[in-house]
């Protein structure tokens, strides 16, 4: 499958037109690779380490020509580009090595097998619906039912085992509390706490939650669990690489993606 065909297939599933106004989905760098047979490196964040990994894979015989990332390389239009700047260096390496960079962010968050949907699959939630619907049954986050119901301590254990977060924060609660309804949203989801409460969820798994988000969740009687940005979005990247492979595309999951954080 050519890169142009792969992108057309993907955009029919996760249309960039669905992105938020502040977002920058789609091509970040297209150095003239559309006609090439796609060999893809999937990552969460397109960093210099991932680009260097792509170049190393090419030198070792796997001809990577597309980095497919969840997070955009470019959020705001730069006024200039320089090799002393990480974005400028990424662009330089992309053109020199003929490696495209494409990002699917808030459009990918909404779809089946997107960031939230994969989290719901991992927790084996049943009868899921979006927390905030957008169009045609799609939307941000997922809320569903645990069958059978699960004690909070066991749910925390399942999250820790499945997502392997370096740190797990949660609201003060009775660990024996039997949880039935759970909401999930990969990445930064604190702004959806009120919507989660409206959905009747007792527990909300997301990330990037500050002190007052935990206060808000307490006020809405929702047990908030923060598993970290990387841990809640990386599984969808893995699923995407598998999805590409099932469509006959050589696709690898980056081993140089990073959480960017350590906990002492």
From TrEMBL:
A divalent metal cation binds at residues 70-71, 109, 229, 233. Keywords: Hydrolase, Metal-binding. Belongs to the GTP cyclohydrolase I type 2/NIF3 family. GO terms for cellular component: cytoplasm. Transmembrane segments: none annotated. This is GTP cyclohydrolase 1 type 2 homolog. It comes from the Bacteria. One of its GO terms (molecular function) is metal ion binding. The keyword Metal-binding applies. The keyword Hydrolase applies.
């Amino acid at each position: 499958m050519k890169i142009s065909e792969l992108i057309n297939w993907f955009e029919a599933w996760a249309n960039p037109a669905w992105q938020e106004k502040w977002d920058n989905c789609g091509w970040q760098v297209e150095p003239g690779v559309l006609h090439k047979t796609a060999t893809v490196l999937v990552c969460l964040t397109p960093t210099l380490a991932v680009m260097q990994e792509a170049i190393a894979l090419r030198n070792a015989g796997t001809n990577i020509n597309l980095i497919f990332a969840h997070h955009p390389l470019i959020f705001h239009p730069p006024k200039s580009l320089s090799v002393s700047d990480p974005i400028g260096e990424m662009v330089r390496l992309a053109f020199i090595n003929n490696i495209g960079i494409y990002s699917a962010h808030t459009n990918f968050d909404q779809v089946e097998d997107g960031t939230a949907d994969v989290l719901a699959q991992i927790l084996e939630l049943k009868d899921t619906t979006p927390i905030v619907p957008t169009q045609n049954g799609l939307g941000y986050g997922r809320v569903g039912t645990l069958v059978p119901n699960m004690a909070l301590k066991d749910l925390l254990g399942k999250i820790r085992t499945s997502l392997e977060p370096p740190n797990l924060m949660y609201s003060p609660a009775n660990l024996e509390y039997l949880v039935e309804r759970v909401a999930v949203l990969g990445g930064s989801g604190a702004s959806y706490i009120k919507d989660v409460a409206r959905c009747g969820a007792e527990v909300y798994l997301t990330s990037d939650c500050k002190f007052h988000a935990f206060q808000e969740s307490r006020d809405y009687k929702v047990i908030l669990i923060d598993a970290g940005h990387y841990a809640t979005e990386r599984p969808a990247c893995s699923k995407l690489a598998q999805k590409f492979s099932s469509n006959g595309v050589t696709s690898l999951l980056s081993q140089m993606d990073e959480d960017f954080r350590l906990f002492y």
